[in-house]
Amino acid sequence: MKEKEIKQNNQHVQQTQVVEPTYNEQVQNRRDKLTGLIKAKKNPFDETKFLPSHTAIQIVESFEQLEGQTVIIAGRILTRRIMGKASFATILDNSGKMQLFANIDNLTEEGHNEFTNLDIGDIIGATGLVFKTRTGEISVKINKFTLLAKALLPLPEKFNGLKDVDTRYRQRYVDLIANPEVKNAFVARAKIIKAIRSLLDSKGFLEVETPILATLAGGASARPFTTHHNTLDLELFMRIAPELYLKRLIVGGFDKVYEMGRMFRNEGMSPKHNPEFTMMELYEAYADYNDMMVLVEELFCKCLDELQLGRKISYQGIEIDLTTPWEKLTMVEAVKKYAKVDFSKVKKVVDAEKLALAAGVHLNKDLPKTVGNILFEVFDKIVEPNLINPTFITEYPIEVSPLAKKIANKPGFVYRFEFFIYGREMGNAYTELNDPIDQKERFMAQVALKQSGDAEAMAHDDDFVTALEYGMPPTGGLGIGIDRMVMLLTDSASIRDVILFPTMKPIK
What we know:
This protein is α+β, with helices and mostly antiparallel strands.
């Protein structure tokens, strides 16, 4: 390295030297305790393994069998009370809370002093006898304990009341400690995903994996995230949907396939939108969108049963009846019912504009003015918020459905449905377009939209058209947003409540 470069490098090192942080008194006290433990050759971070014999819930549920028996338990200290020669502490493990009782008789004076020197947040393992206190609380009278990890930062002031939403989402690990009930939504999420997989597997669907990075972002109308592959010097997109790859597999001879995974859309954020989210998509050869409606109802019933919920649930204080069969309305019927305007015989744009004005809808100036686009806008702004109980909305305009098959006797409409609950779109399904000539024309129309400034319009996927040219059987396809489904079934107000680590803007 040249002398000039060495000097520049040294200057950079000096500029970026690590500055030792200053700690408040409470944090410094914890670090001093750790230093003392290390000097006494009792460094808790040297511990490599600890095997509990029981969890807190197991001890409670099997108290009659375990009373007077020795158990081994581990968890994080949430509370403690020092009462002279005896002390109480409450620990939290994966199943719940358990009270520990320690005194000089069982631990010796030295051991009891070490126990009282522990801090809230420390993780310990303990051995002792199961008993019930005078107040009737099931507890463990410990005769031995091991400090397994020293908490160098204190828990929030009110460990069971961390309410700052921003902190909860940024530091989910603190949220899970401070608010153990938060785990319930994520346990339910795991059960929902397991139930979906179980039902689809039992019906002969094959779970597959398709690319997350692709040269084209297709399968939905959305703005993608972009990245760059250095070796290939190639711009790539993070997937917005797995649809076009899954339909390639239908062409290839897999008759029933599904995929559950992360999708990425470079769009706005809201209580029901996160840039990365979980989607389940499936495709079934020789089926249509009517079969997909039946499957949607089966999937929801399966998940309700798995969570031991009835068919009527409460979401954000509103009762929702999930009893099947669900209501079915065409988009034209729904607009007539809720917006009080009838598009059934509208052929001209000027007439559609008059109906939108009568419904009180101000049209998006950036969208091409067609009867289908205007109908969809009226539906989106007037009808959707009214769909509280589950409702299938069918027969969408072709302009907003570039991958769905045309309805032969209804020009301008396609075999598509979305289903709505609590005024939210929960899933989307088609009788899939399998005509390669029609598909190419639809892609070209999307390209024209993109060139005119629509960032969410689809790209032309020439290889997918080639796949269709080899022949794809009539196919039904379905996509369900897992996060919104979990929100509904766990009564969670925000999508961030059901994503462990939601996207957050960094704190500078």
